[in-house]
Design goal:
With about 375 residues, the chain is α/β, with parallel strands linked by helices. It has helices at about 1-10, 30-35, 80-90, 90-95, 110-120, 130-135, 180-195, 215-225, 235-240, 270-275, 275-295, 295-310, 315-325, 335-350, 365-370, and strands at about 70-75, 100-105, 125, 145-150, 155-160, 175, 210, 230, 245-250, 260-265, 325-330. α3 crosses α11 (about 275-295), α3 crosses α12 (about 295-310) and α7 (about 180-195) crosses α14. InterPro entries: ABC_SsuA_sub-bd (IPR010067), NrtA/CpmA_ABC-bd_dom (IPR044527).
């Protein structure tokens, strides 16, 4: 934390607020359409863990909305803790009763959006940038955000031999997961606030942005091909375990240290045709988040077990423990921060300013929350009319 304190002091940073778009926001959203889409097979679509809690529909229970199955997507990341724990502990399956919960594990947002748009996925956990892009590219026709899931869990980890303060980042090579993804946009925005110029498409400029899959970023760091990375958990903690140090926790850039890192999205068609199934999944999500908060150690173990089932390898304690501490599960979608993140993408030149009105439909979630004795959450004026 010493590096973080020193770096913020030298940079004169303050919690981020939305910056108005400028004429520099010139690139159309269509640019993002050409981002590489991983094939569904490559991203693990349809993969299912061998676990009793995920073995199938509850025998003798009625089907929810008459459906044989509901297809749920998520990433194998700690930032998707609700989905990991909810799947592992059987919360989704119990809520769906006689309808089977089927799971698909993705590596990238574009492939999950493609699955949602094609009808091969019904509901999923995903980061804010893919949700914004997917909504805007379809002119608001294909998806809705129906819940929040997690805040935090993103850090700038650097090689302490090369970078001792924020000003040392200039001229270095910093990895982000993918062009236009949530962390890429956040880093570009932060770099601009430091006064550095970076071409968003090429990644070249006062800082070189290297788009690197989270799976290979730790090896890139060890080899010296990158000097640091702005990445989500558990990649950030993997870099620390490899000798890196946290220069910046993104949470420190936001009011109240809260910002959306994971949403729950659903196909509009599925929401319209099967509202009871969506409500059941959201009920399981709320129940899972309550259980995580009440049983943090057991929840951490369950998430790691599911990661091992999905990826073939559990996280060591040196990575899992700090990664878990940096995540806050939440039902609140933190809608105002999503709008701010969209503004950052516009400012970076990656996105034409989108009309996000209607991206949220929180009525099913608020119904679940009221029944659980919890307060309703707000859509920051971006809800369906």
């Amino acid at each position: 934390m010493g590096l973080l304190t020193e770096g913020l002091a030298r940079a004169g940073r303050h919690p981020r607020t939305p910056r108005p778009a400028t004429s520099a926001a010139r690139r159309a959203l269509a640019v993002l359409a050409v981002l590489p889409l991983l094939a569904l097979a490559a991203c693990g679509y349809g993969s299912q863990a061998k676990d009793d809690a995920r073995a199938g529909a509850v025998a003798g229970a009625p089907k929810t909305d008459g459906l044989d199955s509901v297809r749920i997507g998520y990433f194998g990341n700690i930032t998707h803790a609700t989905a990991l724990v909810g799947a592992r502990k059987g919360f989704f399956q119990r809520a769906l009763g006689g309808t089977e919960a089927k799971y698909a594990v993705f590596n990238a947002g574009p492939s999950e959006i493609e699955a949602l748009n094609s009808g091969s996925l019904d509901i999923g956990w995903i980061g804010p940038s893919p949700a914004i892009n997917g909504y805007a590219r379809s002119d608001g026709r294909n998806l809705r955000i129906v819940s929040g899931s997690a805040s935090g869990g993103v850090k700038l980890v650097v090689n302490p031999e090369k970078i001792r303060s924020v000003r040392d980042v200039e001229g270095k090579r910093i990895a982000t997961p993918q062009l236009g993804n949530t962390q890429d946009v956040a880093f570009l925005d932060w770099a601009a606030e430091q006064g550095w110029h970076v071409d968003a498409q090429s990644g070249k400029g006062d800082v070189t942005v290297v788009r690197s899959d989270n799976k290979v970023t730790p090896d890139a760091y060890r080899s010296g091909s990158v000097d640091g990375a702005w990445v989500p958990e558990p990649t950030a903690s993997k870099l620390v375990a490899a000798g890196g140090e946290v220069l910046l926790d993104e949470a420190d850039l936001w009011p109240d240290k809260k910002f959306v890192i994971t949403n729950v999205i659903v196909s509009q068609k599925f929401l319209d045709e099967h509202p009871e199934a969506v409500e059941a999944v959201l009920r399981a999500s709320v129940t899972t988040n309550r259980w995580i908060k009440a049983h943090p150690d057991a929840a951490k173990a369950a998430a790691n077990e599911q990661l091992a089932a999905d990826t073939g390898k559990a996280l060591p304690a040196a990575v899992l423990d700090p990664a878990w501490r940096s995540i806050q599960v939440t039902d609140d979608p933190l809608a105002a921060t999503l709008e701010t993140q969209a503004g950052h993408a516009v400012e970076a030149g990656l996105l034409d300013r989108p009309d996000l009105r209607g991206i949220y439909d929180l009525a099913p979630l608020n119904k679940v929350l009221r029944s659980a004795g919890e307060p309703a959450v707000d859509d920051a004026g971006l809800g369906v009319p």
